[in-house]
Amino acid sequence: MGGVHIKYLLHCPRQLWLYSRGYRPEQNNSSVAFGEALDATTYTRRRDIDLGEAKIDWVTTGAVVHETKSSRTPSPQHEAQVRHYCLLLARLGVNIARGVVHYPLVRRTTEVAWDAFARAEAEKTEQAAKDVIAADQPAPRLPRSRCRGCSYRDYCWGDL
């Protein structure tokens, strides 16, 4: 399970359910393209760490997990994604120190703690994502006002 699964769970469980079944409209979304371009042109000396389905932006000496976001504001989704990466590395035997979320557009960072509480949160979030993915039906749609900018919006609301 990758970080995008965690991000989608916290944004919209329906989005996670659809994504897990191969529906990928974000490929045509300009916001996603902007985020990918920002990732490709920021912190270029760093290399991604590919764990299969999860791809960590980079890890520095002392086992600090780093994630870059195109958003201008911190989000609980971003921190949950970093905690998930910390959990995956911890399961591989890496002694994680903490995480950092980078917001290059506003030149800001957010620290993400990695301790027993953070690990328990990461495990709980991971289980919630597994439960959504295993469901026979998608979660109900969120209120339309929460779907602004979502690449899945047409799928969820296009029938109106």
TrEMBL record:
Organism in which the protein naturally occurs: Thermobifida halotolerans
Phylogenetic lineage: Bacteria, Bacillati, Actinomycetota, Actinomycetes, Streptosporangiales
Record protein name field: CRISPR-associated protein Cas4
Ranges for domain DUF83: 3-157
